[in-house]
Structure to design on (145 residues):
C-alpha cells in the first residue's frame, strides 16, 4: 500500500528565491583581508583565568581524596569499637600463640606451673578483674576456677 503524492510545480515554486547581492564575491576577498589586518585584539587572560580549569580539577581531586580518607578513618574507628566489645581472646589461643612465640613445649610449661607456689598476697578477684580487662571471655575465666 504505497502512498503516491503528486506535487504540482507552478512557476512560482520553480523560481529561486535566494539571491546573492551584487558584486558580493568580487568584494568578499577584500573585506576578509580588511578584517584580518584590522584584527580585533584578543582578550588577555590573567594567570588565574588561564589556570581555572586545572585548579578546579585539582580541588575536586583533593576533595575526593579527603572524603575517601575520612571514610576510611571513620570505618576503622567503627571497627575498632566493635573489636573492643565483641572480640575476646580465648585462653587456649593465647597459650598456643605464646608457646609458639617462645618455642616452649607444653610439658615444660605445665611442669613449671606445678612447681611454682601460689603467692597468697594475690587476690582471686584481682586476677579476674585483670583478665576481664584484657578481653578474655567470661567462659574462659570461669573454666579456670
Amino acid at each position: 500500500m504505497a502512498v503516491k503524492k503528486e506535487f504540482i510545480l507552478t512557476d512560482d515554486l520553480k523560481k529561486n528565491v535566494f539571491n546573492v547581492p551584487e558584486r558580493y564575491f568580487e568584494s568578499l576577498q577584500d573585506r576578509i583581508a580588511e578584517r584580518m589586518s584590522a584584527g580585533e585584539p584578543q582578550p588577555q587572560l590573567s594567570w588565574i583565568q588561564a589556570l581555572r580549569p586545572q585548579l578546579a580539577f585539582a580541588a575536586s581531586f583533593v576533595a575526593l581524596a579527603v572524603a575517601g580518607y575520612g571514610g576510611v578513618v571513620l570505618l576503622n574507628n567503627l571497627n575498632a569499637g566493635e573489636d573492643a566489645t565483641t572480640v575476646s581472646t580465648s585462653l587456649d589461643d593465647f597459650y598456643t600463640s605464646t608457646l609458639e612465640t617462645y618455642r616452649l613445649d607444653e610439658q615444660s610449661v605445665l611442669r613449671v606451673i606445678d612447681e611454682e607456689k601460689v603467692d597468697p598476697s594475690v587476690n582471686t578477684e584481682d586476677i579476674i578483674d585483670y583478665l576481664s580487662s584484657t578481653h578474655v571471655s567470661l567462659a574462659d575465666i570461669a573454666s579456670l576456677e
Confidence is low (pLDDT under 50) at residues 83-87. The first helix runs from residue 11 to 14. The two ends are 99 Å apart (CA to CA). Helices lie at 11-14, 24-38, 47-86, 91-102, 106-115, 124-133, 138-144.
